[in-house]
């Protein structure tokens, strides 16, 4: 290390040299001074008083040049064609000893370059290239190496090899073909690659090697425009949107841990679940599940699962919570809402009556509907919370001075939904279950210090100002704070809140 460049001395930091002209640092100066300052190496030495034999490359670069020369000599020596004239400037080399200094020096230099690029090993470099679809030339540029062949040899010496981008794409093509049986359905990166190959062939006028390989896999990769659309229609993939779903859904199914659409459908049938659970599992909307299952399979996915369907002609399988669809074999708590996704023999959507007729079900067989399912769901929640009916639940609320929000927490349901249900079950009948616990009466608003009791429903709230608007008077008009006071003979000055 000699510090900065001054007349008569070339500055070096051990790796780079400092240009006298501009003060910038470079691994080698010859190219820089010629391209930037317009002078030759000889003119530069003369102008700055440097000895004529001063090397305009850094020490590390000279060591690497020696390593390359030793490599060439060692390889030639193995082949019996060693010529020591190629080692000019490298120092004396004994026969048979060339590989040792080359391997030691080259390994050290390459390791330094790997570290400078942010990699610990050659495997890290290869992993980066694979992740970024990069080539050996890309690695060479990050390492500051001029020749990608040198990079390939050095990496191979460490036992790692990099596939070319073409090899990697052909690998993806093979996987796509194995999964879908056609190259008509490739999208995005592979589709652009196919277009590029077709373009290069049309420009060059001769066949590309990779095109010949693709022809052997599926010659339809060459199709474009209407020819391609016709082939898609023939394969049952009539639009670009369906083609996208074909690939996208298959990938989602595989990510969820299933081999294909049939395996997913088999799992769903065996576990008594339907489209909602499948949609949640693979990350799609439940209403698109059946169409996606078809698009993700080259064959009818239902054909391979028909033996798992227990619902038969004249019989509807029911496990107590769900019923099994005759058409797809999936299980639904509200079968009457699902069947319209299937069609009859004339292609029209199935209705409840058409479904019964198609599968010879008697009128006595009930297709579970939303009302029935909701009633069963609420009954289970009431049972878990320790109530045998809604009446028991609201009586408990009136007795313990709580409102419908606290009741919703007990039942583990949303606060917004519970009042609508309470209104249907209690409002019309006047909330008889809370009658014996009502302390609020005409002219008096019960107040326990923290809550006040509603005259209408018997539930308790910190303030009634917003709550009373839920109730209606005898004409069906929503109550206001003032009309509530008038209705129950409360003084106009009485605030509808606790502690007044």
From TrEMBL:
Species annotation: Gordonia effusa NBRC 100432
Superkingdom of the organism of origin: Bacteria
Protein name: C2H2-type domain-containing protein
InterPro entries: ROS/MUCR_sf, ROS_MUCR, Znf_C2H2_type
Top-level taxonomy: Bacteria, Bacillati, Actinomycetota, Actinomycetes, Mycobacteriales
C2H2-type domain boundaries: 17-37, 323-342, 452-471
Recorded GO MF terms: DNA binding; zinc ion binding
Recorded family membership: Belongs to the ros/MucR family.
GO biological process, one term: regulation of DNA-templated transcription
Segments crossing the lipid bilayer: none
């Amino acid at each position: 290390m000699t510090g900065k460049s001054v007349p008569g001395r070339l500055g070096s930091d051990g790796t780079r040299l400092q240009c006298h002209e501009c003060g910038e640092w470079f691994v080698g100066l010859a190219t820089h001074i010629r391209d930037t300052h317009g002078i030759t190496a000889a003119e530069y030495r003369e102008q700055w008083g440097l000895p004529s034999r001063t090397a305009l490359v850094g020490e590390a670069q000279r060591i690497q040049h020696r390593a390359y020369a030793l490599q060439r000599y060692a390889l030639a020596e193995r082949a019996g064609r060693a010529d020591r004239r190629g080692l000019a400037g490298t120092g004396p080399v004994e026969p048979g000893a060339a590989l040792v200094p080359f391997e030691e020096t080259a390994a050290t230099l390459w390791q330094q370059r790997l570290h400078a690029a942010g990699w610990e090993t050659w495997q890290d470099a290869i992993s980066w290239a694979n992740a970024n679809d990069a080539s050996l030339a890309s690695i060479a540029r990050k390492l500051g190496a001029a020749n990608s062949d040198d990079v390939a040899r050095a990496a191979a010496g460490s036992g790692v090899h990099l596939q070319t981008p073409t090899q990697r794409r052909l690998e993806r093509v093979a996987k796509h073909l194995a999964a879908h049986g056609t190259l008509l359905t490739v999208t995005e990166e592979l589709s652009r690659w196919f277009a590029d190959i077709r373009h290069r062939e049309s420009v060059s006028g001769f066949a590309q090697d990779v095109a010949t390989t693709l022809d052997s896999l599926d010659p339809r990769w060459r199709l474009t425009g209407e020819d391609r659309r016709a082939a898609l229609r023939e394969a049952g993939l009539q639009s670009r949107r369906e083609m996208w779903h074909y690939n996208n859904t298959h990938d989602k199914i595989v990510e969820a841990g299933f081999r294909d659409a049939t395996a997913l459908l088999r799992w769903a049938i065996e576990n008594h679940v339907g489209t909602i659970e499948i949609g949640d599992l693979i990350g799609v909307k439940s209403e698109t599940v059946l169409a996606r299952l078809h698009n993700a399979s080259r064959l009818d996915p239902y054909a391979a699962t028909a033996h798992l369907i227990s619902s038969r002609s004249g019989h509807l399988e029911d496990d107590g919570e769900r019923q099994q669809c005759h058409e797809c074999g999936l299980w639904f708590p509200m079968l009457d809402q699902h069947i319209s996704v299937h069609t009859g023999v004339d292609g029209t959507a199935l209705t409840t009556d058409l479904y019964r007729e198609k599968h010879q079900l008697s009128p006595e067989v009930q297709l579970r509907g939303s009302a029935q399912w909701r009633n069963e769901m609420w009954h289970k929640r009431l049972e878990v919370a320790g109530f045998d009916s809604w009446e028991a639940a609201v009586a408990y609320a009136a007795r313990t001075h709580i409102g419908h929000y606290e009741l919703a927490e007990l039942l583990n349901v949303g606060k917004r939904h519970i009042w609508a249900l309470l209104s249907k079950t209690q409002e019309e009948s006047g909330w008889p279950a809370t009658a014996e616990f009502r302390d609020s009466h005409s002219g008096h608003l019960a107040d326990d210090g923290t809550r006040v009791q509603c005259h209408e429903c018997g539930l308790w709230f910190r303030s009634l100002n917003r709550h009373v608007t839920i109730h209606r008077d005898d004409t069906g008009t929503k109550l206001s704070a003032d009309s509530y006071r008038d209705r129950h003979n409360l003084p106009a000055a009485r605030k509808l809140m606790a502690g007044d």
